[in-house]
Design brief:
about 100 residues, mainly alpha, about 65% helix
Length: about 100
């Protein structure tokens, strides 16, 4: 019974870091501001914390915990890379082009 409780607490801890990172990546709205806010430095820090948890708990987690943690880290890292690429190479803004007035005769 105690293992079930600690497993659920572990999942909740990792989930809270995951949600914090999603917010920092600008993927979900902040519950405080109700806006998308991007802070890639904060996202990187949270991913680093998850990597540290992974390293420090190696050999001490059950299979489900390990798979969940590894999946979360991989998913967040892929999205972090995607967002940093967007920052480095922003998509050009689409501007309305006014078509010249051409009188057809």
């Amino acid at each position: 019974m105690e293992d079930d409780k600690t497993t659920q607490m572990f999942f909740s801890l990792i989930y809270s870091f995951q949600m914090q990172t999603w917010m920092s990546l600008g993927k979900i709205k902040s519950p405080v501001s109700d806006k998308l806010e991007k802070d890639l430095n904060a996202a990187q820090t949270t991913i680093d914390v998850l990597d540290m948890i992974h390293a420090k708990t190696k050999g001490n987690l059950n299979e489900d915990e390990t798979k969940f943690l590894e999946h979360v880290i991989a998913e967040l890292k892929l999205n972090y890379v995607e967002e940093t690429k967007k920052e480095e190479n922003p998509e050009p803004k689409i501007e309305e082009k006014n078509e010249p007035n051409v009188d057809k005769q």
